[in-house]
Automatic annotation (TrEMBL):
Substrate binds at S82, N133, E177, N184, Y208, Y260, V278. Its EC number is 3.5.1.2. InterPro entries: Beta-lactam/transpept-like, Glutaminase. SUPFAM superfamilies: beta-lactamase/transpeptidase-like. HAMAP family: Glutaminase. This is Glutaminase. The keyword Hydrolase applies. It catalyses: L-glutamine + H2O = L-glutamate + NH4(+). It comes from Mycolicibacterium iranicum. Belongs to the glutaminase family.
């Protein structure tokens, strides 16, 4: 299939999921297999997040035809946290273009935790990538708008378009993080000192904290992910949110940096771009096929949901989603799927 990206016709890899009933039962199986896992710790550095029930667990898959499969606590809403970074980045890419975001925010992994101050210092104030807090705040600062309120309206409208409905802010989470985010304020000030943030850094932190406080469910995350899997068109609403080129760029950055310093392990186990948040959400994208959303609060030491990663790794295997997997051409030919020459 040919699409035009940045004025150049490109071929894209696509593929099909198994039929509806099989996906439905595999989503249930993913939930059943992983619900007994008790590893990981619920985040408590944002005080209100510590109240989360460690047993909450939901798995959703949204196909690019708009079909959504869910199992578990899919009605429990939680704050999107760092997962917002992926979607704000896509919205900023749409505005500024490939070259500008590459230069100003960067696309390389820091190898350090998401809220690292040292990473900023080691890189002479360059934020390195949009999935760590420094780069995410740098991206938020680039959102169009005359003041923080207009910037917030832009982010709220954009993330709501990814989800397919108007998202709400969890004011309790916003307040709890606002009172305890000295570290993010320090990172924003540091970026300012390097001339990397042109706006009032504390106003940028405030908009960033608000975007992290938006409430989503696992099914919302699946649909948001499916929009990135679907060349930028939300498969449930049919509305274009970003271009196909922006999806491609965002997914490349997620593959390299979506699980912070554990992005290599993530890619090794799951083989797909994804993004985690400290409230326990996880979004994973199978380009051309589906978005996977999971929710389970206990986290690994880097801040990625443990059950979410395991359920996603299972689904990646059984649904044939790993982008690095192939089989010998001769095997495919024997099954009659080779091209006529
Ligand atoms: N709002 C959180 C923070 O800035 C998001 C971190 C995360 O989800 N990893 O610390």
């Amino acid at each position: 299939m040919d699409v035009t990206v940045d004025g150049v016709a490109q071929s894209v890899t696509t593929g099909n999921l198994p039929q509806w009933s099989e996906v439905e039962s595999l989503v249930e199986a993913a939930h059943r297999r992983c619900r007994g896992d008790t590893e990981g710790r619920v985040a408590d550095y944002i005080p209100v997040l510590a109240q989360a029930d460690p047993d909450w667990f939901a798995v959703s898959v949204a196909e690019v035809d708009g079909t959504v499969h869910s199992s578990g606590d899919v009605d429990v809403a939680f704050s999107i946290q760092s997962i917002s970074k992926a979607f704000v980045y896509a919205l900023v890419c749409e505005q500024l273009g490939h070259a500008a975001v590459r230069e100003r925010i960067g696309v390389n992994n820091t190898g350090l935790p998401f809220n690292s101050v040292i990473a900023v210092e080691l890189n002479n104030g360059h934020p390195m990538n949009p999935m760590v807090n420094a780069g995410a705040m740098a991206a938020t600062a680039l959102v169009p708008g005359r003041d923080p309120d207009e910037q917030w309206q832009f982010i709220h409208a954009g993330l709501s378009a990814f989800a397919g409905h108007a998202l709400q802010v969890d004011e309790e989470v916003f307040l709890s993080e606002s009172q305890t985010n000295q570290r993010n304020r320090a990172i924003a000030r540091l970026l300012e000192s390097y001339g990397r943030i042109a706006l009032d850094p504390l106003a940028v932190v405030d908009v960033y904290t608000r975007q992290c406080s938006l409430l989503v469910t696992a099914a919302d995350l699946a649909v948001m992910g499916a929009t990135l899997a679907d060349g930028g068109v939300n498969p449930v609403t049919g509305r274009r949110v970003v271009s196909a080129g922006v999806c491609r760029d965002t997914l490349a950055v997620l593959a390299a940096t979506g699980a912070y310093e554990r992005s290599g392990e993530w890619l090794f186990e799951i083989g797909l771009p994804g993004k985690s948040g400290v409230a326990g959400g996880l979004v994973t994208i199978a380009p051309g096929k589906a978005g996977i959303g999971t929710f389970s609060p206990p986290l690994d030491p880097a801040g990625n949901s443990v059950r979410g990663q395991r359920a996603t790794a299972y689904l990646s295997r059984v649904l044939g989603l790993n982008i690095f997997a192939s089989q010998a051409h001769t095997l495919a030919a024997n099954r009659g799927t080779h091209h006529e020459h």
